[in-house]
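re: the backbone from monday

yeah here it is again, tokenized this time
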């Protein structure tokens, strides 16, 4: 789904980014810090100071969905 931006005095302008109604989340209590998600999607996940994964960017792509499916403890959700 794409969103449209209103342009003053003219037709709506199409935005270049998709609009999603969900967020990527990492449950810090469940995460064991294996780094699988970071290795798969370094543009989306990073390891924090506690050695656990956290979300860098809210990108909804095939890589993030694969990371969700690959997490050994199901700590990542969309």
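seq for it, each position gets an aa:
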């Amino acid at each position: 789904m794409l969103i449209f931006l209103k342009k003053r005095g003219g037709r709506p302008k199409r935005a270049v980014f998709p609009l999603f109604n969900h967020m990527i989340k990492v449950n810090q209590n469940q995460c064991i810090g294996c780094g699988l998600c970071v290795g798969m999607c370094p543009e989306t996940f990073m390891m924090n100071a506690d050695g656990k994964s956290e979300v860098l960017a809210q990108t909804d792509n095939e890589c993030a969905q694969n990371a969700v499916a690959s997490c050994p403890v199901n700590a990542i959700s969309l």
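The two ends are 17 Å apart (CA to CA). Residues 62-70 form the longest helix (9 residues).
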